[in-house]
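Why do we bother with holo predictions? Because pocket geometry can differ from the apo form. Keep that in mind while you read this record for pyridoxal-5'-phosphate.
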Amino acid sequence: MAKKSFYRVYNFSAGPAAIPEAVLERVRDELLDWRGLGMSVMEINHRSADYLELNQHAEILLRQLLLIPEQYRVLFLPGGASVQFSVVPMNLLRGKTTADYLNTGIWSRQAIDEAAHYCRVNIATSNDESHFTTIPDPSSWHLNSDAAYVHYTDNETAGGVEFSWVPEVGDVPLVSDMSSNILSRPIEITRFGLIYATAQKNMGPAGLSVVIVREDLLGHALPATPTVYDYRTAALHHSIYNTPPTFSCYLIGLMFEWVQQQGGVRIMAECSARKAAKLYRCIDESGGFYKNSVEVMHRSRMNIPFSLPDQVLDASFVAKAAEAGLVNLRGHRLVGGIRASLYNAMPEEGVDALIAFMQDFQQRYG
Ligand SMILES: *Cc1c(COP(=O)(O)O)cnc(C)c1O
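The structure, written out:
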């Protein structure tokens, strides 16, 4: 391999997260002159034919990657998942007054707190007693058949808890925050009323969310919903009601192309399973030096939190890892410890390098 002319680390950040080098190189190459227009993609008009094609192409790629059926609309909306925490109830209450939420960690909690401004939130289950290290068995959930929808967080980015199955909720529309694991495995779209994800974990740039919504759920937004965030309006205008975050939409499209070139979400799922299994094995075989307390069947493939015997060692681990080019391993500020995020853009060599570092660190300080 030719020697690189730039410095790149292995970036284990939970978000904004690593972007594949090939994508960044393409952005660099196209930055001053996109498609021979003599302008950057940032400088072109969002209603120009070229931009419309970019927008359409991104949607088509996502539809191909996730096999999204025709009766679902794909929206690219400004703002992260935290915006969708409000926009979902604004659009989906449909005259009802209550919604069910599964509370499995920090992100579910934030979604619940926002939804509570718009409706009565029924917390159908909560794992807070376990300090968010498990998912309570569905037989213990208290779902409400009159709920407007059931909301859950498919992967808890901070706690490292991931659903390995799709909850069964009968006829009530199922809504999922897939911010930190979208495009990491196939999704059975028809099981859902709506899926949303902020882009900066597994799809590239911050400041943009993807929403996949079943068509029959459109058209019921609360009167005070900002027009930009009325899903029906967004769908009618193909996400170009107002000026969209054009550069982020361009970048997300390049990410979709990259996933497709890797072989699609099935290959991403294989890679994710392999990378996560390796790292968990290293943790579990460390004789208790490294510890992950999530129940094994609910362990996340994407975000792997672990801790060392004390906080001094945690801090020293993070600092020494950074010196070795393994960066952003500090745990979530509310969780502490270490967290390694292994999104699609993290190559397996990065995980191997982390494991080698962990084994070496344990030998020196264990
Ligand atoms: C990061 C994240 C969010 C928040 O995304 P923002 O872009 O900061 O609004 C919400 N949910 C999950 C699961 C996340 O990982």
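Residues 15, 80-82, 107, 153, 157, 177, 179-180, 198, 201 surround pyridoxal-5'-phosphate (CB under 6 Å).
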